Amino acid sequence: MGSRLRGNDRENGRYRNRLEATVEKSFLWITLICLIPWTTPQGLGADVATWDCEVFPSEREVTFDEESGAKVTFITGNSGDDANLYFHQRSWLPDGSLLFFFRQEEDGPRTFSGYLEETGEIVRIQKPDQSLFGLPTAARYANEVYVAHDQALWAWEIETVFEPKTRVTVTEKKICDIPEEMGSLSGLNENSDGTRLVFGGPVKDSTGSLIVAADKETGEIQEVARTPFPAGHIQCSWDNPDLVMFNHQRSWKWGDHNRFGGPYDHRMWLADLSDRAPWKLYPTPATGELTTHECWWVDNQVVFCSGTHWNQETGAEESHVKVIDVDTGVARIIGAGSWVEGVSPRDLAKRNWWHSSGDPTGRFVAGDNWHGDIAIFSAQSARERLLVQNHRTYGGGAHPHMGWSPDGKKLVFASNRRGNVDVCIAEIPVDWFADW
Ligand SMILES: [Ca+2]
Hints:
Methylamine Dehydrogenase, Chain H; 6-stranded antiparallel β-sheet; 5-stranded antiparallel β-sheet; 32 strands; globular; disordered N terminus; binds calcium ion
């Protein structure tokens, strides 16, 4: 129960950083090169700031999974609880050169950081005086990442050179202000053609949420949806530039289930930029059904975790990885969960799935479970293979929250194996592509 609540807190959590303590002791601090007034052609007043990032030595350690043989690289080796980006956010720059994550520095702040594939070096991306919030996400097409700070959204362009020594430069451009009525940020995503950022948050002094789309060039904001309930997990379709999915956030009593009845009868919603009111995706029957952790996938499909069996007293539950075609409304199981009455929740959780995300090439879908296992399901054969196992202890620790690299060959996930949370990259074994 507790771990679930922690997981949910992370989803909604603000990554506010405690930077003051370490500013004094850092001698290689970020150099603010310039801060010049800048105005878009459309007249949006903004500043462009450019800074060099502090670069830390590589901490990476290459291991291999005991069962699958998959290469697993621990990219952090410190004692703090590091964290990869949430599973439906984009962790890598489009060219794969840098992976974003949050690094818990030793006795210091939690900072928005990057891992350089080329050298293994770790880069503190953010400036020392910044307090980011919401969920950053890398861009789809440009070497940029989108972040929120100071009640505004920003694009950070990343430029890296390795000679004569590694130098990573961030150039910041303001996208838009966050509407005043939005109390906080509960989602940030880029649409499929890279023209807009979609974000949302609770409306102040209400129980509802507002979801909007901002034009990346002009900063102009359009309303996507206004909901009477808290909306979260805001994500843009990978195919339709106007289509957005979000969920109905409920206060968690026992997961995202409807088993206790009440008004929460549906999790996944869709909305677009037309006048159409938000509509339901995969309505949950009134008898209750687990429906959770949805993520867009290729061909206007959504993967999610869902099951119809549970034991309210023990907490045991069934959870398949399902795929739903948004255009036809047809859902199917791609990664089977399991249900046997009387099996302990711990044992049953070994064969059921809690987060799911599909690879950008459409070959595979990944599912994680409460034991820190990650299974890979083939879109072609529905064949299941266990990529990594035991990166979490049932009952506690960070969930893997795996996310895919742009080329669909690697996954980033959180591991608790070393007694604290580290960020890992697992590579799909080459022969799995030949026989998927
Ligand atoms: Ca760590």
